[in-house]
Specification:
Largest sheet of chain A: none
Radius of gyration of chain A: 17 Å
Distance between the termini of chain A: 32 Å
Largest interface: A-B, 38 and 38 residues
Helix content of chain A: over 70%
Structural class of chain A: mainly alpha
Shape of chain A: elongated
Number of helices of chain A: 7
Oligomer: homohexamer
């Protein structure tokens, strides 16, 4: 319960002190959470769909919306990679290029997969990127 | 220092446990932080501009990019207002409509103002929304 | 017949005299008419589809295009709500926030419903907004 | 006064009876009215700007927003030309291609001109298109 | 083999010497090739789909992505027609309006057809436009 | 002269034989050519502007449009990097990540620079990518 009541403040006030250049892996992560949530719901359309649509309709919308969300994941990750990270970061984290390449490829794979386990892998790839991002911010 | 080293984890893992329907006021906030950062930098173009552009060029880009960021703030707030909040929330928080209206109007005002104090007001409006959002999530 | 021959002029010349700030609920309405027309056509794909596509293909396109049109309805309504309406309007029409909230929620519902009766409700919600809009313009 | 009180209803209910395929030159016209309104305001920035921006800032925003509005005019006109009009319309109105070409070129010219007289020419070009459109609808 | 090894250089260096105003029918063509490739793949989903999706899912994605690509074809063609071509070109090539009208209509037809033969007709229409374009450039 | 008359055919028919997966570095290159052309024209606004705009207006539009074109360059490069290139390509071209990172950073730098020499560097970075791309296609 404590955790729940604290989380909001953390999330909302997390980046008040950004000095300049506002970047945040949360943007990619939120979209990726959406991707995974869609993969979850795709598994059980009858549970999630509303009365005005068939299970087939619901699934078609899942695919369509996931496509867009996965594109947003890519976009946010690409921006971080190209715009935020500098040569000095790369020296310290030589795996950075490969991490981003795999994470964006995983976002591409999310368009072709309805399996939430795939979405989980995408989230984990983003968290690896996020971990490094926050290390560079607190350095 | 402890604060700095903890923040990353909080931000990156904050919404792992979202059940379904991924909404997060952080999306509006990140864009609003960008708006305020641009207002700050607009004040001192010679400090921030690169060698290949004049102070006038830099300011023109400030205005242009801020316009877009402020639009994103609006978009994210509108989505929260229409898609996330339900009649039961409104019963408990009758000020909700007014809050969102003022917050999105503040985002509109941000296009016309280069004053970081205005951007700060926008951030505070978003945080009021965010506070309610997280209360409804932990309820 | 007179009505038909007059309508064009009315529509085309309707807003020649806008003083400043060009807003028009027609933008939301046109998109909502498109939403309803798609719901209608979804009911009878064999009647509407062309030779090069199956009924299933046609319906998938209905869903996809309706999703986008419904988003446009929301966008146009949100802009009216935040950008056009002022506190003095709200004093005179205290139901304004609720009207817009319900109208944009109805646009969201249109994504999940293939029933033209739902689209009709969306049109009526927009017309309620439109009625107030034009009253404020002629005031 | 009668005119003012009637106009709303006309605009709002104008296209209730569209049979299928929702097209309306009003979409292009509304954006073009916005273009012309911006050209008007550009002439007197001190009158229109808010306290938080300079006249130069205001004009930069005029140019930027006009660019986007003019693009929307083009987009809406192109859609009408390619999607709505059929070979039988062209037989009856052989000037159609030329009209659309000139109207979209005028929209392009609007990006490069701050003169409201230019915006007026754009509006007139759209009205020529609109006149034919409504003739084909009432035929 | 010679052809294959030469092609890259041609494509990559083709427009180095553009004087001003960068237009290139290749933009429309690349999107149209994508349209046709999707129509091809739609015919045999089991061959092309990945393990994480059904044949139905794959086809739904074909339709959705083709819709977008066909829109890009239209956009690029419209821009060429309105922005690049001048009255003097039209005098020399009086068929220009009709060519563009048919080519963009073919792009619209591509949304409704899964037949690669239709996509081939779209490519041929673009190549007719392209032939004239390059004649005007080398004139 | 021979070169000029041949170029069209090459560009227009260059990719007729693409097997599946339509990628082409020409998309990034065309946008980058536009970036450089804008930098060139920015140098001499009085030569390029039309009668309806001031030199300042013209330059503001240069900055605004270049911003968008540079974003397109990034987008097209990112897509090539993530979607086209496969691990086996990376084995053969271990410099690939670094090339793309620098090319997209150069596209970012183009937003901040009015110097055509910078645009030339962007074009050269894209051509390095393009050279490898076409080698992998003809392999």
């Amino acid at each position: 319960m404590l955790k729940a009541s604290l989380r909001p403040r953390r999330a909302v006030y997390a980046h008040c002190d950004l000095p300049c250049g506002v970047y945040d892996p949360a943007q990619a992560r939120i979209e990726a959470e959406s991707v995974k949530a869609i993969q979850d719901r795709y598994q059980d359309p009858d549970k999630w769909k509303t009365a005005g649509e068939t299970a087939e309709d619901y699934r078609a919308r899942c695919l369509h919306i996931k496509e867009k969300r996965a594109d947003m994941v890519k976009e946010h990750l690409w921006v971080l990679w190209t715009d935020y990270f500098k040569p000095e970061h790369l020296e310290k984290y030589p795996q950075l290029h490969e991490l981003f390449w795999k994470a964006t490829k995983e976002a591409g794979a999310a368009k072709k997969s309805q399996d939430p386990a795939q979405g989980q892998k995408l989230l984990e790839a983003i968290d690896e990127v996020g971990k490094i991002f926050w290390e560079t911010k607190s350095a």
